Hints:
The complex is a heterotetramer, with two copies of chain A (146 residues) and two copies of chain C (77 residues). Chain A has three helices and eight strands. With 146 residues, chain A is of the alpha+beta class. Chain C is α+β, with helices and mostly antiparallel strands and 77 residues long. Chain C has a five-stranded mixed beta sheet. Chains A and B meet through helix 1, strand 2 and helix 3 of A and helix 1, strand 2 and helix 3 of B.
Amino acid sequence: xxxxxxxxxxxxxxxxxxxxxxxxxxxxxxxxxxxxxxxxxxxxxxxxxxxxxxxxxxxxxxxxxxxxxxxxxxxxxxxxxxxxxxxxxxxxxxxxxxxxxxxxxxxxxxxxxxxxxxxxxxxxxxxxxxxxxxxxxxxxxxxxxx
Amino acid sequence: xxxxxxxxxxxxxxxxxxxxxxxxxxxxxxxxxxxxxxxxxxxxxxxxxxxxxxxxxxxxxxxxxxxxxxxxxxxxxxxxxxxxxxxxxxxxxxxxxxxxxxxxxxxxxxxxxxxxxxxxxxxxxxxxxxxxxxxxxxxxxxxxxx
Amino acid sequence: xxxxxxxxxxxxxxxxxxxxxxxxxxxxxxxxxxxxxxxxxxxxxxxxxxxxxxxxxxxxxxxxxxxxxxxxxxxxx
Amino acid sequence: xxxxxxxxxxxxxxxxxxxxxxxxxxxxxxxxxxxxxxxxxxxxxxxxxxxxxxxxxxxxxxxxxxxxxxxxxxxxx
Lengths: 146, 146, 77, 77
């Protein structure tokens, strides 16, 4: 699980079916007792009377995959977890759709809670992905993380 | 959302489809930016050579629903969250199946991470639910939380 | 006062029934626990909780409800 | 040495192109940043990061790769 660099990117919004399939595929791993899932959803933020209708994501995908792989490896070393999966959208994701899906599983809940938060923080801080917020009047602004 | 006492109980294991339907139903709430989902999965623990094949849950359901309602109300007061849903299995849940599903949504991730952990801890500590671990040789032991 | 005690989880096994009627008069939770522990010495090591009206009681509270829940430690989740 | 610079996110807009070739000789990241800020004064307020070989560089590191990524702040998630 921890060896190969995986492609985290999914074109467009991440479907709820993708998430349920991912959960289903863990039911054979009966050493798992706790899953923690983070989902980021595109907000229809209002900025000076305009409303965000989508975010268009671009990335240095090769480096992004590499950094996510490093984040995974470090987290497996730090916490007694069984599985970790990271997915991020590329291209246009409409308001209300899911653009990031991070899934951590372990025997016990303490590890998944701690690991998931750290991983999400690290993805936001260290992975070269760029979000362009598209407004309903065809203007845009660049998303900023904090 | 916060007013009526809801029934948290689902007969048997909680299906991944239930979870994806729940996610889907939040896509119209475009003020949400972050979801955090906790899932408890029945572990096939080994105890003195025997393996847990299922947990049979019983509860004082009326009180359990009431306490979960109070946990929700308190969490809505404490954190800027948009939605919270709690589901727990009743009856037999096989190893590998989901027996608890807690779903918290908010504009930003800080609130969902904090709220979800606290809610899961409170459910484990304060809700009158009882798990009987069934072994593969037809014996059993009573689950203990820690 | 007639009080219906309902037992849960492993208590049902330890006691051998899931409920029973007790005749008591103006007793506190502490007194009820002491009655139960005399009647069922096998309960002594368990940390039992008593609820009335769907709420965990304080030890010095008076039993006022005719339906009382007797719980072993919770193990949901 | 010929170095291909690739720009990302809002830098593409600010600079007006997504990549370009630069001829440089044994320079550090600090020197590259200074070249870029002279050429594109509009980049000065942005906290730009430079990567080579899919790794964020240190400021005193020498540019050795022929493909360099120039990033604005990240905003994934």
